[in-house]
Design goal:
By secondary structure, the protein is mainly alpha-helical. The protein has seven helices and two strands; from the N terminus they run H-H-H-E-H-H-H-H-E.
Length: about 220
């Protein structure tokens, strides 16, 4: 699905509706296991607002025509989804060395958080509310976005070698497109067996770069 256009454009709404494969819950259901009982009212309000927006778009399509709505709302939405998918993907893939994925007894909350990747988005960092500080976000998701940079700065001496310093960006993060192309060309699947696994390449899938299946030492 990742390599079949336009299916990746629908990954985000599908994720919100059904989450990723193997996981249960919906971001639109107030009674989903994703949410605590005291959050149900907020989820219900969010779902009602989302439904109202969908109805407004349908009404606008009948009133003004499908193409104007597509140009004014649809195309910017697809650009947003593409950027969001890329940002999310690069927080978990595309590091200079292949990172392990853990299963079973080898997995822990700490190990999972430490195999995520921080990214620098240049001037877009503020627009992202500093989500580029992704490691600390995974380890302590309760930290609000306006303290992520400060928390990352404080955590780095503690994490030591387990923290991977992101490459500094210019005004616009052009370098991330290189990481994305390389990862899409190499990181296609992981083995169904084993509790510490690394991404491998499938030669039948198109590649952007020469595959490099060298494996790094696991944490």
């Amino acid at each position: 699905m990742r390599f079949t256009i336009p299916l990746p454009m629908f990954a985000y709404p599908i994720y919100l509706w059904r989450r990723s494969p193997g996981k249960k819950g919906s971001h639109f259901n107030p009674y989903s296991d994703l949410f605590a009982p005291h959050e149900r009212k907020a989820v219900l309000i969010s779902t009602l607002c989302w439904t109202s927006m969908v109805l407004l778009l349908l009404y606008s399509s009948f009133l003004f025509g499908f193409l104007p709505v597509l140009k004014i709302y649809g195309i910017p939405y697809l650009i947003f989804v593409a950027w969001l998918d890329m940002v999310t993907y690069l927080h978990h893939h595309g590091y200079e060395q292949k990172l392990p994925w853990y299963r079973g007894k080898e997995w822990s909350y700490l190990r999972g958080g430490l195999t995520t990747i921080d990214r620098d988005y240049g001037i877009i960092n503020n627009i992202h509310h500093d989500i580029g500080t992704h490691v600390i976000h995974h380890l302590f998701p309760q930290i609000p976005h306006y303290h992520l940079v400060e928390a990352t700065r404080a955590a780095k001496p503690v994490l030591g070698k387990y923290y991977r310093e992101p490459k500094k960006s210019g005004a616009f993060p052009w370098h991330l497109f290189g990481y994305l192309a390389r990862s899409l060309g190499e990181d296609h699947y992981v083995s169904d067996t084993g509790e510490v696994v690394f991404y491998q390449s499938d030669p039948e899938i198109f590649t952007f770069s020469k595959p490099n299946n060298a494996k790094t030492k696991s944490n």
